[in-house]
Amino acid sequence: MTSSSGTTLQELFKGENRPNMFVKSPKRQTSHLDMLKRCFSQDYKSELEFLGGKLATLCYCGAFLSFGMSEAVIGPTLLELGCQTGKGVNRIAWIVFTQAFSAWFGSLTGGLLAERYNCSRVLVTNVLAISICLAFIPVWSIYYGMLITVGLLGINMGMIDTVANVNLIKIHGREVAPRLQALHFCYGIGALLSPMIVRPFLRDQCDGTVVVHNSTNSTIERNRTILNTTTVYKVSKEPITVQFGYWIIASIQIPIILGLVYLIFKQKRLRETFPVPNEGEIISLGDNDSESTSEAMKDLSQIFKPVSLLPAKRPWITISVRVLLITFLSSSLLFLCEGLKGSYAGYLYTFALKSKVHLTSREGAFLSALFWGHFAVGRFISIPVAIFIKPDKMVCINLVGCLVSMSVVLYFHDKALAIYIGTSLFGLFISSVFPSTLALAELYINVTGPVTSVIVIGSASGEMVIPMIVGK
Prior knowledge:
This is Major facilitator superfamily domain-containing 4A-like. The chain has 18 helices and three strands. By secondary structure, it is mainly α. Strands 2-1-3 form a three-stranded antiparallel β-sheet. It is globular, with a radius of gyration of 28 Å.
């Protein structure tokens, strides 16, 4: 009995089959791999179901990340680009106008392309073109060559702005508000990353000789700024390192391009596996009660507004006039707000160095990053807030916050602390104006591709005209 019990105890405490808490279980590793496989190889029943999923939305957010990075990189590097081309602030400021004007033209073109071509293919072409333009902008020592490259960059930025918004609205309809906030949150993340990436490559001033033309006489001085004069910088003999920041940003676009390419092939595979019924045929809308017509309408790639969502009685204003009025008001609001945002973000770095505050180049880059950081935080907060608060209330809160923050910067423009506080508040409140305005317009009208193009063109016009007025 004792020997048998002793043998049993020895076999029990041999430790051969005891689990080790420091060794990972193979089942847990398999479960993680299964989760990863399910994320990329989930079984979808239609192309529309795939486009409405999280993976497709993540790819569109990646395109907006590229959009934000390309727009925010010009402002902090404006003086460095002037050193590269040998132009002063008055001449190099035309780069901001060129980028905004090209984005306006790209927004107009993007609305037409979104209705005729596959949006994923348009987006992958735009992101690829943006990466190429970012790689070539800091290399140019010829001023007009740099302007042309910035113009191409702006065209692709405007296309991304229109195509991504139109596609999300077509897919999700009136439930698009949180997804629009997430889309524009990625824009804020990209705009935050750009100043942080180029910050180590910025200098306080150009090296070399500075020629200053005065109204009374001409003097030649070295590394000195004279007020009320036009300063023209000669090209520095020392190499400018800002191109490395641009190349890093251009390389970040590669995984975004790969994600959009995967999206294109997945759409093509689903379209071949589950073809859309009655595609290319004329469907009669007279028999609305038949089950076959309703099922066919659900599978159409073009999303229609259900009749039950329209008002039962004819309102005092016709539908066509309502569309024109809502579109005009939305584009006018975005003209002012986006123009104010573009001018503030574009000249914030230059203002920090040239105004009475007299910040250094690193402090100016930090100020730009602070603005875009609060911009990204504001859009992140707006994602859950958009579920509980209606778009009209969000727009009112944002406008009041922008008014207060701009008042702080205006009345205390010579105080560094006031500049930091006003910049943070302005970035926080201006962040969700654009997606909230689109969601507000969607509550009253059917926001189609042309309507979105007009609204985006209004915002792009503000980003083009108002910075030009401020720069002069």
